[in-house]
Amino acid sequence: MGSRFVTIQMCDTQHTSLCITMRVDLLAMFIAFEGPIAAGKTTLASLYGNHLGCPVLYESFAANSFLADYYIDRDRWALPMQLWFLMSRHDQLIGFRSEMETHSVADYAFVKNRIFANLILPEREKSLFAHISETLRTNAPKPDVIVHLDANNDVLLQRIKLRGREFERSINGSYLNSLRAAYNEELSVDSSCVVVPYDTTNLNLDSRKELEELFSLIDGHLR
Q1: Residues with a known catalytic role
Q2: 31 three-class SS
Q3: C-alpha to C-alpha distance for 10 and 178, rounded to whole angstroms
Q4: Using CA atoms, how far apart are residues 43 and 35, in angstroms rounded to an integer?
Q5: What range defines the domain where residue 128 resides?
Q6: What is the pLDDT of residues 109-132, one digit of tens each?
Q7: pLDDT tens figures, 67-98
């Protein structure tokens, strides 16, 4: 049997002198957690990363200076908010490549950009955003597995209330329904990776048994 490890070199296409060499595990997989707001992405990505003993990438959403403005005036601020997220996610994922020599986990996937853009942008802005996003998408690491989380609206809204983020106060059930539908539509046709659906409505984070059952479900899709 041949070695499961290979050495690869990656270079910046604009600056060929900027290259990095990595020893990559051919069996390593990238697992991303996705789903509506407050579905449990960050918490479960962190716990699953600990389970695997691997690096975890967390989305840097708090630094988006357009986010609070968006929830006040969505029509005015939707595009700049989405462009900020697009560039931030792209740069984070590119920077995370060096951590992907073994299994790696993130609390989002690049597909999140398209899901939110399709939901909140008008057609002309959506077309512009799609053109920029597709250009960047080719460079961003793609997950091998997406764990698609969800929960019922009452639970999601209660979690949103408990974490007390000012900019999330205007989120309501109607918005969550639209977001859920957008996720379901996108991930149901995504053939580029394995999608593992999981409902967190009744998940008890203090139950080791329940967490182990979830982790075992995800583990079953790893090489």
Answers
A1: 107
A2: strand
A3: 39
A4: 12
A5: 30-219
A6: 999 999 999 999 999 999 999 999
A7: 989 988 999 999 999 999 999 999 999 999 88
Answer yes or no: is 45 within a domain.
yes
In a domain, 15, yes or no: no
Give a yes or no: residue 13 inside a domain.
no
| Torsion angles phi and psi, residue 60, rounded to 5 | -95, 70
103 band by pLDDT with thresholds 50, 70 and 90: very high
Query: What is d(CA 71, CA 17) in angstroms, rounded to the nearest whole number?
Result: 43
Task: In whole angstroms, give the CA distance from residue 175 to residue 159.
Answer: 15
Q: How far does CA 173 lie from the centroid of its chain? A: 22
Strand, helix or coil for residue 12: strand
Alpha helices in 56-172 (DSSP H): 67-72, 74-96, 111-120, 123-137, 153-163
Res 49 pLDDT > 60: yes
Sequence letter at residue 215: F
Write the CATH number for 210. 3.40.50.300
Counting the structural domains of the chain, the total is 1
Residue 10 lies in a domain: no
Q: What are the CB-based long-range contacts (under 8 Å, 24+) for 88-94? A: 88/59, 88/60, 88/63, 88/64, 89/59, 89/113, 89/140, 90/136, 90/139, 90/140, 92/57, 92/59, 92/60, 93/57, 93/140, 93/141, 94/139, 94/140, 94/141
Judged by DSSP in three states, 150 sits in strand
Q: Residue 192 CB: number of other CB atoms within 10 A?
A: 10
